[in-house]
Amino acid sequence: SKRIAVLTSGGDAPGMNACIRAIVVACEGAGHTIIGFEHGYNGLLEQNWRKLDSKKVHNIIQRGGTILRSARCKTFKQDASGQLAANNLDELAIDALIVIGGDGSFRGAVHLGKFWGGQVIGLPGTIDNDIYGCDATIGYYTAIDTAVSSIDKVRDTADAFERIFLVEVMGRHAGFLGASAALAGAANYVILPELFTDPESVLNEIQQQVAIHRQRYGHESYIIVLTENLWPSGINALAEALETRTDGEVRPVILGHVQRGGSPVSQDRILATTLGVQAVRSIEQGKNGIMVATAQGDVVEVALEETWQHKKTLGNTLTHCMLTMLNERHHWP
Ligand code: ADP
């Protein structure tokens, strides 16, 4: 049997608790010891940890956030921190560490691996789904649902007042959340990093489309989904520019951190549980320096470095669907 540790790091995501639970249950069943470090890599540096067992993870599968807390840890990039963390893990005689987080957390895991002889396993946990090598990350499905229910509500009020609404969703530098939320929310236009050319072209295209939309549907609502960190001068400047272009009211709505919260949907719970179980299995097989994830229905192991060396693309199917249903509808006869 092994001594295994787990931590959650970086931006939190719904389903992290479900993942912790699965790891604990799988470890207990196989006779491994399992401990949890608190506050991401900070807990590793400060020896802030607690023993976990299945009683302690009872009734958490449905909870958002993470019982181990998450955090950024700026100093972890330093060699001294990597060394300190390695010493602390050795002191506790830990054989393997599971890191649930995004690509920043994976970089941290690889950094630790330079100083520590134990096994390091990453599990993708972020609402942005921006990690190469996996189909979905823990938290992504819930964040889509949260954004979509907000868009549904925005449409009700937008219809009542015949306005244009601009809804900003998260995604960091990737358009997965924006694309999915825009499609599932039946938005009219989406502005994503992957489709972005330059501000002027986007403004021109929206201006044209809104004109066509008004001819066809009268002054019914028009909803634009925007990915965060993309519009050069910010969402308010974009709203103002669009007011001038469309001669109408444009209301910006920033969904913000509500997208990180909430009870995980079943898809995230199932993904989190699958990955937690598989992480323990990979540790038993002696694996090290890998992300455990699912791709095309199968469990895959991807070298941690690869997860940030390659850029995950939206894919042809999703892109084609978006262009057909959203941004290029004006090409229809
Ligand atoms: P996410 O995991 O969601 O991408 P961050 O990018 O904030 O979140 O990264 C989480 C933490 O991972 C950072 O606060 C830091 O402790 C650690 N980390 C990120 N990049 C590195 C790096 N290059 N070397 C060591 N640790 C890193």
TrEMBL record:
A Pfam family reported for this protein in Swiss-Prot or TrEMBL: PFK
- Gene3D superfamilies found in the cross-reference section: 3.40.50.450, Phosphofructokinase domain
Keyword Mitochondrion part of the UniProt annotation? no
Domain Phosphofructokinase spans what residues?
A: 3-282
Keywords, comma-separated and alphabetical: Allosteric enzyme, ATP-binding, Cytoplasm, Glycolysis, Kinase, Magnesium, Metal-binding, Nucleotide-binding, Transferase
Q: Which GO terms describe its cellular component?
A: 6-phosphofructokinase complex
Q: In which pathway does it act?
A: Carbohydrate degradation; glycolysis; D-glyceraldehyde 3-phosphate and glycerone phosphate from D-glucose: step 3/4
User: Record's family?
Assistant: Belongs to the phosphofructokinase type A (PFKA) family.
Co-factor requirement: Mg(2+)
A single Gene Ontology MF term assigned here is:
monosaccharide binding
InterPro entries in the record: ATP_PFK (IPR022953), ATP_PFK_prok-type (IPR012003), Phosphofructokinase_CS (IPR015912), Phosphofructokinase_dom (IPR000023), PKF_sf (IPR035966)
> What name does UniProt use for this protein?
6-phosphofructokinase
- Which locations, inside or outside the cell, does it occupy? Cytoplasm
Coiled-coil zones: none
Q: Any idea of its EC number? A: 2.7.1.11
Record GO biological process: canonical glycolysis; fructose 1,6-bisphosphate metabolic process; fructose 6-phosphate metabolic process
Q: Which reaction equation describes what this protein catalyses?
A: beta-D-fructose 6-phosphate + ATP = beta-D-fructose 1,6-bisphosphate + ADP + H(+)
